[in-house]
Specification:
heterodimer, A: 302 residues, 4-stranded antiparallel sheet, 10 helices, B: 247 residues, alpha/beta, 6-stranded mixed sheet, 32% helix, disordered C terminus
Chain lengths: 302, 247
């Protein structure tokens, strides 16, 4: 009966219902877009932060003992993390993988021309310059470089710094934006349910006099708000889902190894499903709290 | 003890004494008129039974329960035992006649499978079986009052309170509605009806509690107008020393 009454209210005020659903849809559309962006930017940042940033190319005459001693020294340095020894043979393998499209290039080289190296990252990029200077001073080190694809040390620093800024803007700016939209949705729900309570004032009074419990009186109102919120979540999420579905092949291709979106269709769907579940909970919370607040305000004004 | 009893009940609104030390009792199955001029305290009395208001002093007992001691959560269950008929009908305008009656069943938690049978029976009783799918706007005043009565009756209440149920009706329609009340009373329902329609009181020849300025009175005029009453003015107001009169 409560559902029938709630649907009757919606049917009788289609424009109020439409405005509530549109505002909520917009909120959850932006929320879904931002949730995926936060995930992607986080993964992008993590990728750049965790890949070896510094490569110390070792002199060919370096002894295993000296290399081991230097590796232990780096491993014990708190500013340094993920130290890895790359032998001449491994370096060749990496080269072969990198030139897989042109096997002729790999055939022209032998392991001997690749120097062994120690690859490592710094825990914070601000240490990079100092660590590089110290590494250059080591007797067994021939030269020190940054990840080749990123160019020089300034480029790496600026790329990561820029990524950090972008991620920060997405997280904080997006959070604030979603917060504002959520507050707007909450207020719209509050106003619409408040209007409904004003229209239903006589009905509430009659129900109260014939012995209806407060929950009996509230139920159709709360159900109506829940219908708005759930419809808003579904519309907003669906539009966002279609956009990401359309864009995902190009995004995945562009970023290559970097997992900016969950790999595999099932993982991707599960990720968006998780977002939907969270949004449904948030929507239900907005609807229940908004309608309860509107009801209590209407009661006070009686 | 009767189904409703007032013991020294007073209620004021600022300086206005709506009820002043009112004591009376209504037996199960009785039909009692509460009468008196406007402002005498009739509606206040009914509101106190419904726990819309709390008395300033005194005790009101309904069905063995002290109404004043009920918590807010217990009020709905009190009201579910009372059927109320209002002067202005108070029907739900956006619901059909049938839905208006069904809502009372929903309120007391009757299973939906029972609704149709019970509603049909009540609508037949009040003579609206043929109009069950109409909306209130399509019904006359008399019919709306019958809807209000049907809604009150369908829950099989222990008590029916009627506040000027014929106040908005012409004499002929009023007589029809009152016939219904009488019929219901004959079937054993307790009815307390507030009215100042003397023709109705005369026609039904029931017990009358007369109020004036918030006090129970039973004047000579009342006795002359309704000589055949079994009792006029039940309960004694201590200040006025009015006796219960058996006729």
């Amino acid at each position: 009966m409560h559902f029938k009454v709630a649907f009757d209210y919606i049917r009788r005020s289609p424009f109020q219902a439409a405005s509530a659903i549109v505002v909520l849809s917009l909120t959850f559309f932006v929320a879904t877009m931002l949730a995926v962006l936060v995930y992607s930017s986080g993964n992008l940042l993590k990728y750049f932060e965790t890949r070896p940033q510094i490569i110390a190319f070792l002199k060919s005459e370096s002894t295993p003992e000296a290399i081991s001693a230097f590796q232990n020294k780096l491993a014990g340095d708190l500013r340094v993390k993920d130290v890895r020894y790359v032998s001449k043979e491994e370096a060749l393998e990496i080269y072969k993988e990198a030139t897989v499209d042109n096997p002729l290039l790999a055939q022209l080289v032998s392991p001997s021309i690749f120097p062994a190296s120690l690859e490592f990252s710094v825990s914070d990029l601000s240490y990079a310059e100092k660590v590089i200077e110290e590494t250059k001073g080591e007797g067994i080190v021939d030269s020190v470089g940054f990840t080749a694809s990123l160019g020089g040390e300034k480029t790496l620093g600026s790329v990561v710094a820029r990524l950090r800024t972008i991620t920060w803007y997405i997280r904080i700016g997006g959070g604030v934006f979603v917060g504002i939209l959520s507050a707007t949705s909450f207020l719209v729900l509050l106003v619409i349910i408040g209007m409904r309570m004003t229209v239903r004032k006589d009905e509430v009074e009659i129900l109260d006099l014939i012995g209806a419990t407060p929950s009996f009186i509230r139920s159709p109102i709360v159900i109506e708000a829940l219908i708005y919120a759930l419809a808003g979540v579904l519309f907003g999420w669906l539009v966002s889902f279609i956009i990401w579905l359309y864009l995902s092949p190009n995004i995945v291709r562009y970023f290559g190894d970097i997992e900016v979106l969950p790999k595999g269709t099932l993982n991707f769907l599960a990720f968006l499903g998780l977002i939907l579940a969270v949004e449904l909970m948030v929507g239900a919370f907005l609807a229940i709290s908004g309608s309860m607040l509107a009801i209590s305000r209407a009661k006070k004004s009686r | 003890m009767g189904i409703v009893s007032f013991k020294g009940v007073s209620k004021s609104f600022g300086d206005i004494h709506a009820l002043d030390n009112v004591t009376f009792e209504v037996e199960k199955g009785e039909f009692v008129f509460i009468t008196g001029p406007s402002g005498a305290g009739k509606t206040t009395l009914l509101k106190l039974i419904l726990r819309e208001l709390l008395p300033d002093s005194g005790e009101i007992v309904f069905d063995g329960e002290n109404i004043g001691a009920l918590t807010d959560k217990q009020i709905p269950s009190l009201r579910q035992k009372i059927g109320v008929v209002f002067q202005d009908f108070k029907v739900l305008p956006e619901r059909t006649l049938r839905e208006n009656v069904e809502v009372a069943l929903a309120v007391i938690g009757v299973d939906e499978s029972e609704w149709q049978g019970r509603v049909d029976q009540i609508l037949k009783l009040v003579g609206l079986a043929e109009r069950s799918e109409l909306f209130p706007a399509q019904l006359s005043g008399g019919e709306l009052q019958r809807v209000s009565l049907a809604r009150a009756l369908v829950v099989n209440p222990k008590l029916i309170l009627a506040d000027e149920p014929t106040g908005n009706l012409d004499w002929e329609t009023s007589a029809g509605v009152m016939d219904l009340f009488e019929k219901i009373n004959k079937e054993g329902k307790t009815i307390i009806m507030a009215t100042h329609n003397k023709m109705i009181i005369e026609k039904l020849n029931k017990r009358v509690i007369a109020l004036k300025n918030g006090r129970i009175v039973s004047g000579v005029k009342e006795e002359k107008v309704y000589p055949q009453h079994q009792k006029i003015g039940v309960g004694v107001h201590t200040k006025m020393k009015v006796k219960v009169q058996e006729v």
